[in-house]
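At this stage, I wrote out one protein, both as residues and as discrete backbone shape codes, and that material follows here.
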Amino acid sequence: MTSHESIAAIQATYPSLRDRHPLLMAAAILPTAPVKEVARLVFDRAQRFRSSIAFWAHPLCGKSSCISALEKLAPTQYPGAAFVIYEPSSKDVAAEGALIEDMLSAIDFEPRALRPLAGKRDQLLRALYAMSVAGRHLFLVIDEAQNLHVKDLGWLKRMVNWLNTHEVKVTVVLFGQSQLCTMHQRFMAEMPDLTIRFMAELVEFRSLQDAADLHVVLKSCDDETEYPRGSGWSYTQYLWPNAHANGFRLARSATDLYDAFRSQSGGAVDQEGISMQWVAEALMLVGQDSEGSDAEGMNISREVWERAIVDSGYRSRTPAVLAATAIGRGRARRSP
């Protein structure tokens, strides 16, 4: 039985397996060009005993997928390293106790948090050390970092210093929305030393900019992914086994997909790029609609991509810059 015959047999025997395909759930974590650049910067900085870097992005650019990709890649780059994702809650007043409890929750700390602040602090530090001691390295990723207060940076500094004295490398990575840029300026005026410590590098996590970026995404579906786990089959191969066996590759659609987005945006992609969410939606819809087209000579035309983009709701989107501005104004109105 050939490979594509094996896939077809499994699809027929376990139909729900196809339904859970990452592309068909718009849940694939794909190594886009922006994600690869972030990974390069983070893992380069991670060679230092103590390091930090901050990234800001417009909404829907795919930063959550980027964080998931870093979590997946970190053990391969730094075996034994711990990886903690902490998302600070939006609050008007900073409180060290609340930060510690949130972080304990983020690492699934099971014992009850002690009531005295010093006890909670000791619990967190020792829990982080226990997680990190195997690889002597901790990656601390702070998502929605625009919710941080300047006092939070002081408490994080104390935590990093404690781990450093116990011979654990710490790499702090901040991810936030565009308000992180404004916050950076404000923090520099209030606490320049702390700001430089954690946000000396503030880099834009960009959206997909051109057909070359889309080619990287689609090629990863062809060559750099696997489904089901351990099968050795790429996303493309599993979805379209007969077409794949006869040379079909998603990467060849990169220019058509970009031109389809450009057409449906009225040329706006030249300024705003393409958020990964919309690419994921288009891939999902095309994958769902083309199940019966798996055959030699299969082709996904620009018209098919355009129809999927329209069906995704892309044309009614709020442009990224306007969305970020609206969020910023909303938070300004809620501020005391």
Remarks:
- Strands lie at 50-57, 82-86, 137-142, 169-177, 202-204.
